[in-house]
Every structure is written in C-alpha cells, then in structure tokens.
Amino acid sequence: MILDRLNTLSGADTRVERGISRRHFLQTGAAAGGGLLLGLHLPFATPEARAAGGNFAPNAFIGIDTNGQVILTMPYVEMGQGTYTSVPMLIAEELEVDLSQVQLEHAPPDESRYGNPALGGLQATGGSTTIRAAWEPMRQAGAAARTMLIAAAAKRWSVDPLSCRAEKGEVVDAATDRRAKYGDLAAEAALMSVPANVTLKRREDFKLIGTPAKRLDTPAKVNGTAVFGIDVRLPDLKIATLAQSPVFGGKLKNVDDTAAKAVKGVRQIVKLDDAVAVVADHMGAAKKGLAALVIEWDEGANAKLSTADVLHQLEEATLSEGPVAKNIGDVTKAMESAATKVEATYHVPFLAHATLEPMNCTVHVTGDGCDVWVGSQILARAQTVAAQVAGLPVEKVRVHNHLIGGGFGRRLEVDGVARAVQIAKQVEGPVKVVWTREEDIQHDMYRPFFFDRMSAGLDKDGMPVAWNHRFAGSSILKRWAPPLFANGLDPETVDGAVEPPYTLPNMRVEYLNVEPPGIPTAFWRSVGPSHNIFVVETFMDELAHAAKKDPVEYRLALLDAQPRAKAVVALAAEKAGWGSQLAQGMGRGVSVQTVFGSYMAQVAEVEVAKDGSIKVHRVVCAVDCGIAINPDTIQAQVQSAVMFGITAALYGEITVKDGRVEQSNFDTYQLLRMNEAPTVDVHIVQSGESPGGMGEPGTSAIVPAIGNAIFAATGKRLRKMPVDTSLLKAG
Amino acid sequence: MATTIKINGVDRSVDVDDDTPLLWVLRDVLEMSGTKFGCGQALCGACTVHVDGVATRSCVTTIDSLGSSEVTTIEAIGQTPAGAKIQKAWLDLEVVQCGYCQSGQIMSASALIAENPNPTDQDIDDAMSGNICRCGTYIRIREAIKLAAKSLNQGG
C-alpha cells in the first residue's frame, strides 16, 4: 500500500528541501512495487497560514499502482462533511478517471509531514479548511500525473505527446487509436520528469466538479459495517467506563468498591487522581459496577462556581478597554458627532458538542509500546499525548484512526486519549474506555461563554457612522496553539467580528481574554463566528430598527463594497418572499456573513406561539462559496449546519452550579428532532471564484436570523442565547 | 446462568446478568457493532432494533424481557423488503453524513414503512422523532422514507 512507499519517498523529501525551488509544487519518487507516486504540498487558506508557510515537505500523496488504482493519502479526516468524496473529485477530474477509481487512505500521524499551518502546524481537520487548501494543488497534481502518463505512452509508442490524450483511465493515441491503461503505464510514468507547469482543465470542461457526485463512504454506514472508534474489536478486549470528578479540578478522595467488584463481569476498578474507572467484560457490567461504587470527591477550588459568576466576571471585564483587534477611522470622534446612539449588551452560553458517538478510546499498553484506536480530528497530537502519558517515545505509539461519529471540534481535543491511556496503563491487555452520555456532556470542553458590549452612532439618515464592539471570554487558541495567541488576541476568537461585510467608516473591535476558572473550552462548529455573527447581525438589526428601515434594505445599503455579500442577501430575500404577508405570530429574520471564505445570507421564518414556544418553519439560504465542487454536499452541509444552529438557538445551554455541569443527557441537553426540523432551501450562486469552506457557515448564520425573526413577530429583542421562551409569552 | 436470545434468526446463548440491556450483549458480547450506543436512556434512538418487528430501544431492553421474541438488527434488516428499500433510498438520496445515528434511523424507518405503507408527514414525525441526528439529516430522512414507501408499494 501507499503508506509503505512513504519511506521510499522520504529520501526524495530531503533532496527537494535542499535543492529545488519551492515553486515546484510536486515531487516524484520511485514507488515500491512499481507504479507512480507523486507527493504534493497543500498550502492553507488563511492569511496567518500563508504567513506561517514556506515549508515545502509534501503532505499528501497520489499513487497509481500497476493495477491502475489511484490511491490518495491525505491528512484530513471524514466526519460526515463529505471531503472523502470532494477531494478525490479534484484528482479524478484532472486525471480523467472515474471517481470510483480513487481510493482514499488516512495519513499516519506525523506532524512534521502533515501539519496544517492553518491550525498552528498541527495535523488537524477543522475550520472548514479542507477544500480551500486542496483546490489548487490537488488539481495540479492530478494534471501532472496525467501529463506524465501521457509522456510515458508517447515515449513507448514513439509519438508526439500532443497527439495523445487521457480518457477514462487510459492514454489514447488519436492517430492509431492505440490505448494503454494507467496501471500499465504507471512504472514508466514514474521515470518521466515532473512537469514544471501544467495546464488545468477549463471550468467549462469539468466532468465531475460541479456535479452531485455520490459519497464514497456511505454504503457501509447504512448496513452496520462501518467501523467507528467505538466499534473497535480486539481479542480479549475489556470495556471500561468511568466517573470523573464532577467538579472540574477536583480529586478522588475515597472509593468503596466492594459492591462494584461483586457485579458479574466486573474485572477491575482503576483509581486515578481525579477519576475512577470500572473495567468489565461488557459495558452493561461496567455501568452496573460504576453505579455500585461509593465515591467521595475532594472538590477543590471550583466547588462553588456557577454560571452566574462567569456572567458577572465577563460583564465586569467589558467595562474596561481591551486589546484592539480592529480599528478603522476614529470611533470616538464619530460617536460624538452622531445624531443617534444605540447601545446593547449580549451574551452567549457554554455549549456542549454532544456528538452522537460518545467519547471513547481503546488502548493497549504493552511493555515497550502502546496502540491507540480512536476517531480523531488531530492524529499527531493524539499520538504525542499517548506517548507522554504512557511514558514512551512517540515512535513507540501507534495510532489507528477511525470514522468519527460527529466531530464538530470535539475530536480536535485529546483529553479522551490521555484518559484512556491512564486507565490502560493499569490494565492487562487492551481496554476500550467508553464514556456514558452523562460523562460526555458533563466533561466536555465547551464553546466559550461570551459577553458583548455594543454601541453605534447613526447619522441623521440612520446609517452607522461609528461601530464599537467589545467582548470578553475564553481564547481556545491560547491553550490549543499558543503561538497564534499574541498581544492578547487570537484570530479565531475575533473571527466574524473584525471583518463584517458592511462599509463601516469608523469601527473598533476590542477583545478581553478572560478565562473563567474550572470550565474547559474548545472549538465548536463555526468557532468564533458562532458567537460573533449572532452579536453583529442582531445589533445590525437593532440599528435598522432604530433607523426605521427594513432590515434587508438597510443591509443592502451598506454592502456596495462587497458585491458577493450583497448578492446573497438579495437572493435570499427574493427566494424567501421577503416583504410578503405572513400569518399572525410569524416573523422573518435575515442575516448575512462572510466567514470561512464563503458568503452566506439566511432568512428564517419563525412562529412564536402564545405560550412563547418557537417553531422554525422555513430557512432560505443563499450561498456563494465560489466553485461548488459537489453541490449535493454543499446543500447537505447547509441543511446540517442550520439544524445544528437551531439547536443552539432554541436549546443550547450548559450551566454550572456548585462547580458541576447541570445538564447530563438528551432530556436536559436537548437536540433538535425530526418533528422540529424546518425545510431548508439552499440556493447556490454560480461562481468561478476559488472555493470557500462549507462545513460551518450555516451554523453561525441561522442563530441571529432566528432572533431577528422573533423580533419581527413579537417586537421583543432577545439579547442572549438560547431563546428564553418565558419572555415571549403573549399578554 | 446462560440466557438464549434469538438474533437475526439464530439462537445465541450468552452468560450475563439477566437485567443486562440487549445493546451491550449485541455490541460487546456478540460483537455486532452496527447497533450504536448514544444515550443509554432511550432518548436518542441510536440503539434501535426490532423486537418481533417493532422498533425498540435496545439500551433499555433487558435480555430477560425478550423471551422467545425475534430480534432483528441493522446487520440483517436488508433481508426484509422494507429494510432493503430504506437502505437503497438512504443511498439514492445521500442521507448519511457522519453516519453514527443512521443504523437507528434505518431501523425506525423500516419498522414504519413495513407497518404503514403510506406514511404522512405526521406519521413520519411520530415514528422518527425519537431518533436524534446530530448532523441534522432530517430533511433527507423524510424524503428517503417517502421514496422507500413508494418503491415498496410499487413492488419495484
């Protein structure tokens, strides 16, 4: 397999790094067992990534074996977002093969080779970066491989390469109609020089890109054969479940395990500093054993913590000035001369990921090594932490990645791997550590709580001349990728706040980094924008109201400098029938954003019942994400992200009392269900621009659209999420 | 003492406590991992199987409650006419995202159309609202159920 060939190629790496200009994006290596192997370097899409770039080591590989099978090895993982189909489409398009001929392999953990500069040099999948990173280099690599295959055929036949063409996995000599299959040509192609320049196909010639290609990973997911991390099977595997200190930072004081040990199937009780695990033959026995433990905790410093304290702490923080993330013009001066001033404060809660596959990790620690089976968005870090906890050199740890039953940022963390290794160190043989849903919710790492203070000055026509946004909350990057946190700021936390699409002549954004104690935070689908777009787009709606203008017209008037943003607002409004009559109790709300490299507007139609309960009936989304590589996946991702955001807007809230998370399972941490799901109409703007990210934008856009629709229906402005239905009761 | 339960037409003998939920017997004892664990409290539907054709949450179904009932899991549902139609519709309409909940969704949907060949939107809500999909594939699930029901009715 291709992974065996990487070692062969690594010699070539060194040579390339020493001598060849980095304008050469590809390198070739003699592939073990014959065939063609191309290594390519994927750059990354964000400005900070480009700034951090310059490293030329290949981080993806295309192999064509002697059977003609195309094997793509890349550092991204499939979490349901469809990149195991859309990235192979890029290769297949240029290589002129059927999509089914491309087979995908997980890259092994190796940060030096596969690190993603967009994510702090870590080998990670997240931030809707995959397609943006892959778009150019994957097509160039496909075109280069095609050129080399044609060159090999032309040499064999002693004809001009220009007389040959590639089609359906073969090279054809037009004059004589001779044909050679790629597999047959692969070994000879490997001897051809890598072309310095390749001609990419014209967009009008695309056969695959832009078509609704079938996903490659789905058949196994409908018949029960797909293997997620939690499904790992090994000989003599034991199952463990655990209780961690209910107060973050607390310690295990004492355990009476007499009754637990008497449970049939329970094999062992593992005590850790801050947790206890029951190891058993099956999860039924492990859970029964866990319930039979009598545990005493030393709750530690956070025993009195509550969410109200966090709110107070953050609100206080925003009374002082903070590091300036963005400054345009002179806000203070503009505010003084404004005809009207508008002020508001907002806050958003901690949120759990609640991936449907609960946290789990399987580990076998032996005398001189450690095997880890897990579904991870961040493979190399999983390997590193396992090595640290096991007390082994990194090369003694083998990480076997698996399908992920929902990532949303949770699998960018390795706390579950560390925990499983701690337990496995005390267990003979392999052990699968499976968290109960209650542990999963109560020991998540949460989307941070934020408090925002907004003010704006409007001119006599009601248009904004000053915009001031100051907010406080946790920085994930400060912990997760410290080099990206500088001068009190990080680019993720302020994403969506610092570059609104609107023309704002005087604008200031300040961020105060405050880390509430005792509540770990992490990336959560749509990251910074999950919070900032709610605030920016709700406040913009407030300004429109203050100006006595229609929310769509008001936005359009501020978008002349951003024609793509303006176009999606106009399209969403038109498709939603903006301005047309709605039934009593119904309202429409709009939002627009430019985040993750995509332009998106949404219109939500929301019904507010007399008891204050909310039903989202319909969502209309217009998106310009550049070239739509797989339109069917884009539609699916918007539908998905919208449902994710509705859950956040209507229900999402993790609260802490006495240091403990109060929610525990899907009765207290509700997720949207079938009977609550709206229709979602997705309109994709035809575009020739480079592709934008699509996994996340739909989530940040829907939350303010719902709030704005509630305002339209009731005249009540909700400045905190989730929606408090008690404020919406009629009368 | 060993208990015998009938899974996908085969008698299986397992030596676990009588009150052990079927889910863990399937996943950890019989190594049939297609049935998923989501919540352990019948709140999410990921663990749905059929017991005598009725969609049932295996995480709260103890093995001593099964008696001589026939249990069908995702591994065998494709052998039933309704299950095969549902699986095909799921692929035809690209329902799946991460896929973790889909075993349970398919089991609930198969039971629905086997029982009710012309489900209305309300029928679909009633049958499917116990199955959570965190990826939010509900729109396509609804369409796929209708497609599968139509196909089942046409015998095609």
Q: Please give the most extensive interface between any two protein chains, plus how many residues each contributes.
A: A-B, 67 and 59 residues
With helices defined by DSSP (H or I, 4 residues minimum), what is the helix count of chain A?
Answer: 20
Q: How large, in whole angstroms, is the Cα Rg of chain A? A: 27 Å
For this structure, the CATH topology of the largest domain in chain A is: Aldehyde Oxidoreductase, domain 4
CATH class of the largest domain in chain B: Mainly Alpha
Mind telling me the CATH class of the largest domain in chain A? Alpha Beta
Fold and architecture overview:
The complex is a heterodimer of chains A (731) and B (156). A seven-stranded mixed β-sheet of chain A has the order 11-12-9-19-16-17-18, with helices on both faces. Chain A has three domains: 2-219, Aldehyde oxidase/xanthine dehydrogenase, molybdopterin binding domain (Aldehyde Oxidoreductase, domain 4, 2-Layer Sandwich), CATH 3.30.365; 229-300 and 360-434, Aldehyde Oxidoreductase, domain 4 (2-Layer Sandwich), CATH 3.30.365; 307-350 and 446-728, Aldehyde oxidase/xanthine dehydrogenase, molybdopterin binding domain (Aldehyde Oxidoreductase, domain 4, 2-Layer Sandwich). Chain A has 731 residues and is α+β, with helices and mostly antiparallel strands. In chain A, strand 4 (70-74), helix 3 (83-95) and strand 5 form a beta-alpha-beta unit. Residues 1-24 and 44-56 of chain A have low confidence and may be disordered. Helices cover 31% and strands 23% of the residues of chain A. Chain B has two domains: 3-76, Ubiquitin-like (UB roll), CATH 3.10.20.30; 77-153, [2Fe-2S]-binding domain (DNA polymerase, domain 1), CATH 1.10.150.120. Chain B is 40% helix and 13% strand. Chain B contains six helices and five strands. In chain B, helix 3 (81-92) packs across helix 6 (138-153). By secondary structure, chain B is an alpha+beta fold. At the A-B interface, helix 7, helix 9 and helix 19 of A face helix 1, helix 3, helix 4, helix 5 and helix 6 of B.
